[in-house]
Every structure is written in C-alpha cells, then in structure tokens.
Amino acid sequence: MNTTIFEAEGLTKQYGRAIALQNINMQIKQGDIYGFVGENGAGKTTLMKIIGGLVYPTKGAIQLKGKSSEKDIARARRKMGVLIELPALYPNMNAAENLSFYCKIHGISDFNRIKDVLHLVGLTDVGNKNTSEYSLGMRQRLGLAIALLNDPEFLVLDEPINGLDPTGIVEMRKLLAKLAHEKGVTILISSHILSELQLLATKFGFIHKGQFIKEVSVEELPQICIKTVETAAAINVLKNDLNIHSITLSGSGEILVPKDLTDLEQLMSTLIRHGIPLEGINLSTANLENYYMDLIGE
Predict the structure, then answer these.
(1) Where are the domains of the chain?
(2) What's domain 221-295's architecture?
(3) CA-to-CA distance for 142 and 233, rounded, in angstroms?
(4) Is beta strand 222-227 parallel, antiparallel or unpaired with respect to 280-285?
(5) What is the spatial distance between Cα 177 and Cα 199, in angstroms, rounded to a whole number?
(6) What CATH code is assigned to 4-217?
(7) φ, ψ for residue 147 (rounded to 5)?
(8) 235-265 pLDDT, tens per residue?
(9) CB-side neighbour CA atoms (13 Å) of 6
C-alpha cells in the first residue's frame, strides 16, 4: 500500500467572516501527481500555504508522512519543495547568488546542487543577469529551482507554468513527469491550464468555493456519453436498474457516466429494454475543463 504523504482532516480556514476552506478531507499518496483544480478564490492556494506552514488552519488538522505533531511536521517539511505564487527573489542578485542564499537557509553545504537545479530548469545560460531583468517565465523557473534545492520528496506547486511560453510549458511538464517517475517525487500542482494538467496528473481533486467536491483518478476520466431526448427517464433507469449514481450532464445535454461503473453492452441493452430512444452513445475521455464545469453546474 502506498504511503500517505499528505492528509487533511476537517481542514477549515476562516478570515473574519470569509471562509476560504470548509471541512476539507483529502489524501495524497506517495508517487501521485495530484492535479488540484478550482476557480480563482476556490481555496487552492490557501490549502497549499497550510501545507507549507505559511498559514495555519482555523480548525482541523494535517498530517505529513503520517505524522501530526508540530515537531514531526516541521521535520517532514525539510524534504518538501514549495512554489506558491511568485517566488521571493533578491532583484540585485543573479540566479546562482539567489540559490546560494537559499542553500544557507536550507543548510545545504553542497553548492554543486546550484548547478544541478539550474540545469534542470533550463537556466544555465542566464549568466550574471540580475533577477530584476528576468521575465515572468524565468522567475517561475528560478522559483522551481529553489523548490528543488533540497532534493524534495514532496513538491507543492501553485501555477508553476504561469508566464511560460509553449516550449517552456512542455519542458516543465517533462521535468515534473521525470521527477515523479524516476525519482518518486510526489507532486501537488495547481494550474488554470487544465489541458496541460490533464496531460501530467495521475489524480485530480476538485475544489469549489472552499469545499472539496470530488476526486478522480486519471483512469476514471474515460466516460460513456449518452444522447437521448428522454434524459430524465434515462437517468432513472441508470440509477434504479444499474445502480449508477455518478452521473453528470454536459453543457449540450449528454448524460456522462464513468466507464468503470458499467459495461457498455449492458448499458445499451438496459436502456433499449426500457424503451429509451438513443440518438447516440460513445466512449470518450472527459475534457478536464468541461468535467469541472459540469461538476459545479456551470
């Protein structure tokens, strides 16, 4: 059984009367590339800040690597890399100098690590240029290099491809996949570019207005799409005869059912037996953006 790297139990964060997170329960297992999906203000960054120790919850608790005491969580964070929002950089220092500063913070004495992480993120050719002259994409790359300095077991990345050009996005995706598959790094990542997230993540958690609404693995995204003029009757058959309750409606009115919940032939024969007219039925992989919009009813 995979080790649980992160767990939230009843996690709530409130700022005055505003509730940023409400009773969040979730787990991230070792080796997951966990795509965290939600609109602006949904609570993604707040949860990531709690994981990184930058914000404290109002209620509830977290565990890191199965440990819940403050001392053990602080120890576990030493093997975490965190990139949330824009990285904190000294503008009058170059990349290597900024990384040298963070090496001292992390207690890293092997300064060869600086060269290694600059190579990983594609910043070996920036020379002595001060970070004040960096583009947004270059800042994001250097922020990731900082997060990788301590050779982390768990990476928490909030919008890491923000500001990257198309080539940079592909390179970032390949790097994160390599870290996960070759080094076993567990990754929690948020992005508004859901098409990219769908190419990378192995599991997805959906959050909306501070509430955790669903979690699916990449294997659950393939779905059966049913098109009929008798939508309500078809849904009743699915629920009552086939005991399928994980049903969503697409924006165009198609009934969407996860493929792993039923056999396609059984589904078709049951609908036909009940006299449900079928205009179309097919198998496809859910578009992550549409999937999320269907979940929140928009």
Answers:
(1) 4-217, 221-295
(2) 2-Layer Sandwich (3.30)
(3) 55
(4) antiparallel
(5) 10
(6) 3.40.50.300
(7) -65, -25
(8) 999 999 999 988 888 778 889 888 877 888 8
(9) 26
pLDDT tens-digit map of 51-107: 999 999 999 999 999 999 999 999 999 999 999 987 889 999 999 999 999 999 888
Contact 141, 122 (CB under 8 A): yes
Q: What are 66's two structure tokens?
A: 């199965």
Of 69, 70, 123, which is closest to residue 99 (Cα–Cα)?
123
Unique residue bearing structure tokens 């992989």: 285
Paired tokens of 173: 């995706």
Q: What is the signed CA dihedral for 89, 91, 94, 99, rounded to 10 degrees?
A: -20
Rounded alpha-carbon distances, angstroms, from residue 29 to 44, 202, 239: 18, 11, 31
Determine the residue type at 84.
Answer: I
Q: What is the pTM of this model?
A: 0.83
**14: CB partners within 8 A, 6+ apart:** 20, 58
